[in-house]
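User: Quick sanity check before I run a bigger batch. Here is a single chain. Can you write out its predicted 3D structure?
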Amino acid sequence: MQEKLLLKAFEKAKSEVNSDKIFTRARHLSEKIYEINQFTYGERSLTEKYKVIYSDPKSDINLRKEVLDALSKYLDYDNYYEFTKNHEEASSEKNAFAFLKKHRVIILVVLLLISSMLIYNYTTRQRWMVWQNDHYVEVDFDVKKYNVNQLKIYKEERILYFKKIEPTCDYSFFNENGSVLIWYGKNKDKELEYFTALGLHPETSKTLKPITQYMINKYITCP
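Assistant: Done. Predicted structure follows.
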């Protein structure tokens, strides 16, 4: 980070002295260091440090703290710590962006796989339902709230079409082709109950029977 600080300082000095000469810029920086921190650091030393960095950007120049703080203030930072903090954050963002750009295809594939897995798990997860009064409702698998025998594997057609009803004799019990529309069965109290679809009785789990004209005449109440 010291190397970056010195390079930026020389870059600013170039615009202020309007010169490409390294030594001229180094003299200007030396004066600024003394002006800012009352610390003497010669233009020759600054020139040598700059040339070391220019020839090998990975070189370690080890500037003194007074010089680092003065150059940071020259670049409008409070001190060297603020300079490093600002540039480390910028460097991290730059590296992150570079990583995303370099590996964008892999990242996109991974995101698509994760999204596909989440969608698959959601659509294929086991769902449950319980009988409530006269119809089924979807619920979470909660053995504290529901008896295990109450919980049934979710079936959409049960939710939509399987209802308990109380028909009268003017109810439509058959389709025009004679097929049955109502099924019946006895509950735990041996009472007849009627449903809108074929299936098992929600309480007894016994198979419901199709309605007949005999059952209608005998058990269905007319208004």
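The beta strands are 128-132, 135-139, 152-153, 164-165, 183-186, 192-195, 209-210.

User: Great, the batch can go ahead then.
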